[in-house]
Every structure is written in C-alpha cells, then in structure tokens.
C-alpha cells in the first residue's frame, strides 16, 4: 500500500539542513574547502607589482631625491691656503713714518676660511669668508706682517650659488668701521653651482666690489682630477674712489707725502691713490662646483691722482698666489665626498632598481603564463574521488 512518509534517504536529507543548503556537499561530502586564490596563484601578480615599483623608483630617484643633493651644503667649513710662487714685492707700511718709502721682497701667504652661517635653510645658505694676506716674515717691529684683511658675508641661492637679494651682502674692510652693504651684488665668488656649465659667466670681486666677466677657458687637471677652468680679469680700479677715501683691507687708499719720500726730486707734496688690478684663474670640479685651485695675480700700486697709467707708481703689492698642495688635496677630497651620493643615488641605485624591476616583471608574466591552463585542458580530478568510488 503506497505511503506518503518519506523514505530513508529523504529522511536523512530532511534531518541534515547543511546538506539541504549545499547540494555540492551532498554530492561530495569529503571535498576540501579550497581558497579562491592560493599562495602560488599570487606569486606572479606580486612579482609584477614589485617590478613596477622598482621601475618607478628608478625613474623618480634621479629627478626627485638627487635634486636635494645638488645644492650648496649647509655644513661648509673650509680653510684655503695659497702662497706666493715667488717673493712678493710689498710696501713696508712701517716706512710711512720714515723719510723714504721702502719696498721689500718677501714671501706672502693668503689664508681664507669660508663657513656656512645663518640665515640658512632649504633654499639659501649664508657664507662668511674671512681673508687675510700676510708676509711670512715680519716687515718691521711696527707690523705683525699683515698686508690686508677683509670679511665678506653673503647669502647665496643653494642651487645657483648667486646672491639672494633678500639676504645679507656686506663686506668689512676695517674692524674699526662698520661693514658696507652691497645690495646690487651679482656673480660667483666662493662657490660654483653643481653641474657647472661650460660657458662664460660673471665673477664678483670683493676688493673692488665690482662684477666682471668670467671667461670659460677650457679643461684642466688638478692633482689628477678633471676640472674646468675660468678666468676673471679685474681691471685697474682706483680704490680711493671705490671706497670714498676710506682705508681698505688694512691699508690706506691715499698717501700724501713729499716727492722725495717717493724717490722723486723736490719736496712738493704729492697725493697718490691706491689702484688695484688682478687676474683670477679658477679651476672648478664640473660635477660639484668645488673650487679645486686658484691662481691669483695681484698688482696694487699707488699712483698720482688723475695720472694716466704707465707713469710713476709705487708698488703696494705685486705677487702671484696659488693653492698649496694640501689645500688642493682637501678640495679634491671634498668634491669626491659631494659627488659620491649623487653617483650612488643618481646612477647606481636607479640602474640596479631598473634591471631588477624589468626582471621581476618578466618573471611574473612568465609565471602567470606557465600557471594558466591551456584551452581544452580538462580540469584537475580529485584522486580521492576515485578512492571513494
């Protein structure tokens, strides 16, 4: 007699809500609950992502990070020593109080210290340069051998190494007088920018407070290091007019003495003004702008006021100075220290990141291609199904 009661299998199905809700579980109760993506499935995309990141870093590092390295350093503190190539001709200032002028022949040393001071920041740095020129031997009991001394303080743009008008620019020629402001200052003096251009520029001379052309003069070598050479010519300048009659760098810009004091006949008073001219030959590291060597030729003479050049003159200082070997070596080491991070982060690291990035992307694409089943390939069959059968 037919019965509406459910049979055994139907009862089991009714009593098992999980089976009713999951037909697949009913068909294969022992099938494992596998994740949608396994670790092996993620290897390829991860390699592609890492490779793309490395390629992006290789492109961005030279453009973004290295730009922060190619600026004037904030920790500048260097001492520069230059000595005369031959004994200099120097007017003995002690002879100003004697019956006749006396010019002596003596080796001289130029010493300069350049230090970074405030204001300084991400865009600007202020350099303070103290420069002295001294005779290696005392000229007389009334003198300690100092021929001249000045202090120059200037705020520079860290990228261009030129004066920032909103900063400081003042030169002090006498410690008893206030510094003179130079608001229209242009040109390079104590530092060059990174990646120095092989072309003419401008040079600022602190002695005459004038800007002159800076002529590119080709390639050079300093202690075996590659350099580029510039030349600046400071024309004959009447320092008496330039400094409004004030003493400059420790020596008078005007001398009034009888003609006999100058070695001329007669005792009529003569007025002579101090004139200055010089030539700067500067060798610069092309990558960092570090000055590796300088050859400075100085010719200072007292000339009668309103007298054409070529007539009578009294030597105040005539010499040619060059960096000492220790100064050149220190400058070369400083240039190498500044260039090293640029080479590492601007060249080596980007190249390595680019090579590894390309390899990672290629490896990821190959991994995905190898893992992907070909068209028409049957799906993998669970071996445990055969065992249960």
Structural class, by secondary structure, is alpha+beta
Q: Average pLDDT value?
A: 85
Major β-sheet profile:
15 strands, antiparallel
Query: Count of DSSP helices?
Result: 7
Number of strands: 15
What are the low-pLDDT stretches, counting only 5+ consecutive residues below 50? 1-5, 8-27, 379-389
Quickly count the domains: 2
Radius of gyration: 40 Å
What helical percentage do the residues reach?
A: 25-40%
Q: What's the N-to-C terminus distance?
A: 35 Å
Gross morphology = elongated
Summarize the helix and strand pattern as letters.
HHHHEEEEEEEEEEEHEEEEHH
In short:
By secondary structure, the chain is α+β, with helices and mostly antiparallel strands. It has helices spanning 8-15, 17-21, 23-27, 39-65, 239-242, 325-371, 383-388; strands at residues 77-84, 88-91, 103-106, 108-117, 124-135, 146-157, 169-172, 180-181, 201-205, 210-222, 225-238, 254-258, 269-284, 291-304, 314-323.
Report on the structure:
Helices cover 26% and strands 34% of the residues. The chain has two domains: 41-70 and 324-371; 71-323, no CATH class. It is elongated and about 110 Å long. The longest helix is centred in the last third of the chain and has 47 residues, at 325-371. β4 (108-117) and β5 (124-135) form a beta hairpin. The chain is α+β, with helices and mostly antiparallel strands. The protein has a 15-stranded antiparallel sheet that branches.
